């Protein structure tokens, strides 16, 4: 079986090399500025590439385009690069997740490791300052990368006036027109609102407001049991808030493997997070000191009320495509505002491309980055490749949950005969040594060929462990391939090896 999987990898590499020399072959692999100091002026000169949006997809696309020798300008309205992810999303939330976890560990775990002190308290302003410092350093770092790679940077709001021209209302109050042979729309996404709920970023907040609360709410209600809601609920729950999650669907994180999801929910409940599933919010009253929510069962029934100091609306995100002048140049969008593109990220308008959250696919920063690289490779006459079936997803709670590939429910729906291998971290020596052993690795593999179909991990640092699985799926590896790879001892990653052994044959340590 190991030799057979080696042959598959060799065939994959040959096919990939062939696609690099044959543009038409790529289809097999595709699933699914002016005014700023220190930057060159774009003026009326035509660029090879213009990128609207400086988030993960946009800034990566701009840097890659410049590295490929294309004259490039990036337009960003925020005034700082990195988009939602770096400024008010991925990065600040991970800073607070880490800081709050340290506080929680100090309260509940240090003593068992022989580290004792009389008291520990939260200095929320200092915690927020550390978060803000991390964000500021990283945004400045991207500006430095722009300078290094000679990317022109225009700070302002851009909108199309033709398929090759973008009018920019600059942040300084002026206007400039940026011209480009190829224009990439990388404007990302915005918070999805709910009918009848007005976000004021004080008592009723989006994820942006939840990252900047001036005090720890006694009671926090989270509307939506997705990635963002559970992460932010974890932050404030660790710091002392009583957290209740209200979700319309019957399950948390609907995209997650069902077995992992159930174990994950039990873990969060042990952390005192409360869940009200199959429940909809039908009214919100914030006229008093706090917020009063009116709830009823998703299927209808008697109404109840729930009070909170702060309500976090975390019902997902929506593509940011309004106000860009897309209708003026004829770029099509679907009913939710996404821009349909072909396998080369081209829209229906020649010379106009789109990547990241504004097109179909996972709304994830790392997916947008891959889109950006592949898109400019196509523009430069090379070949790009993004396989959305191989994009990992991570919930950065503690423990983390990470996955790649198919869930067991999806595999069953495909009608594929498969095997399942599991290994709990309670049997992993490193996890036991550090007294942090809650979690499991689950591998799904095709029964006949042993090809890995999906990997799901709930564990501390699952977001780091998942990448061995991503690489395995990318090269069509078999579970035996992972099982036969020597893993350092003692490490958490040995649990992945043992799960692979359980899938292919039998594990050793359970």
TrEMBL record:
Question: What cofactor(s) does the depicted protein rely on?
Answer: FAD
Query: What taxonomic classification does the UniProt entry list for its organism?
Result: Eukaryota, Viridiplantae, Streptophyta, Embryophyta, Tracheophyta
Q: Name one GO molecular function term.
A: flavin adenine dinucleotide binding
Question: Where is the protein situated, by its record's location annotation?
Answer: Mitochondrion
Residues that, per the record, bind FAD: 94, 158, 187-189, 357, 363-366
Q: State the remark under miscellaneous.
A: The active site is a redox-active disulfide bond.
Q: Which GO terms describe its biological process?
A: 2-oxoglutarate metabolic process
What PANTHER family does the annotation carry? DIHYDROLIPOYL DEHYDROGENASE 1, MITOCHONDRIAL, DISULFIDE OXIDOREDUCTASE
Which residue numbers delimit the FAD/NAD(P)-binding domain? 48-372
- Which transformation does this protein catalyse, written as a reaction? N(6)-[(R)-dihydrolipoyl]-L-lysyl-[protein] + NAD(+) = N(6)-[(R)-lipoyl]-L-lysyl-[protein] + NADH + H(+)
Major location (coarse):
mitochondrion
| Residues forming the catalytic site | 489 (proton acceptor)
Task: Indicate what this protein is called per its UniProt record.
Answer: Dihydrolipoyl dehydrogenase
Q: How is the cofactor bound?
A: Binds 1 FAD per subunit.
- Membrane-spanning residues where? none
Using the record's annotation, list all stretches that form the Pyridine nucleotide-disulphide oxidoreductase dimerisation domain: 391-500
Query: At which positions is NAD(+) bound?
Result: 224-231, 247, 316
What PROSITE patterns does this protein's entry cite?
A: PYRIDINE_REDOX_1
């Amino acid at each position: 079986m190991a030799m057979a999987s080696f042959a598959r990898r060799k065939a994959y590499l040959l096919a990939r090399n062939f696609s690099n020399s044959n543009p038409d072959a790529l289809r097999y692999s595709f699933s699914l500025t002016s005014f700023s100091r220190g930057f060159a002026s774009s003026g009326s000169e035509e660029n090879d590439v213009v990128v609207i949006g400086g988030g993960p997809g946009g800034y990566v696309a701009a840097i890659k385009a410049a590295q490929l020798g294309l004259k490039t300008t990036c337009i960003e309205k925020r005034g700082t690069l990195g988009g939602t992810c770096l400024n008010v999303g991925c990065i600040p939330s991970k800073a607070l997740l880490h800081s709050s976890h340290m506080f929680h560990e100090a309260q509940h775990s240090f003593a068992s490791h022989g580290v004792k002190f009389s008291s520990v308290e939260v200095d929320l302003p200092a915690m927020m300052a550390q978060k803000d410092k991390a964000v500021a350093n990283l945004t400045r770092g991207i500006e430095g990368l722009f300078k290094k790679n000679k990317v022109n940077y225009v700070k302002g709001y851009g909108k199309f006036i033709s398929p090759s021209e973008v009018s920019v209302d600059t942040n300084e109050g002026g206007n400039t027109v940026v011209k480009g042979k190829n224009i990439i729309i990388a404007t990302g996404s915005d918070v999805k609102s709910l009918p009848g709920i007005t976000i004021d970023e004080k008592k009723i907040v989006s994820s942006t407001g939840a990252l900047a609360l001036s005090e720890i709410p006694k009671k926090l209600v989270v509307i939506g049991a997705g990635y963002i809601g559970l992460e932010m609920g974890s932050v404030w729950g660790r710091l002392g808030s009583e957290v209740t999650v209200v979700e319309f669907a019957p399950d948390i994180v609907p995209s997650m493997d069902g077995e992992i999801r159930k174990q994950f929910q039990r873990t969060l409940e042990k952390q005192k997070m409360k869940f009200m599933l199959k429940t909809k919010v039908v009214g919100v009253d914030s006229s008093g000191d706090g917020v009063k929510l009116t709830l009823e069962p998703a299927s209808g029934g008697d109404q109840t009320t729930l009070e909170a100091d702060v309500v976090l609306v975390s019902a997902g995100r929506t593509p940011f495509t309004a106000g860009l002048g897309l209708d003026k140049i004829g770029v099509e969008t679907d009913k939710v505002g996404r821009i349909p593109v072909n396998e080369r990220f081209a829209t229906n308008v020649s010379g106009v491309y789109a990547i990241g959250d504004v097109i179909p696919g996972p709304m994830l920063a790392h997916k947008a980055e891959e889109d950006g690289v592949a898109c400019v490779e196509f523009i430069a006459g090379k070949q790009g490749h993004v396989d959305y079936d191989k994009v990992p997803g991570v919930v950065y709670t503690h423990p983390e949950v990470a996955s790649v590939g198919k869930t067991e429910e999806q595999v069953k729906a495909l009608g594929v005969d498969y095997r399942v291998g599991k290994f709990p971290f309670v049997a992993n020596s490193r996890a036991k040594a550090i007294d942090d052993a809650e979690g499991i690795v689950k591998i799904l593999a095709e029964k006949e060929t042993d090809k890995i179909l999906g990997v799901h991990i709930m564990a501390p640092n699952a977001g780091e462990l998942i990448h061995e699985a991503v690489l395995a799926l990318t090269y069509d590896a078999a579970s035996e391939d992972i099982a036969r790879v020597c893993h350092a001892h003692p490490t958490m990653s040995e649990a992945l090896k043992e799960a692979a052994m359980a899938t292919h044959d039998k594990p050793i340590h359970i």
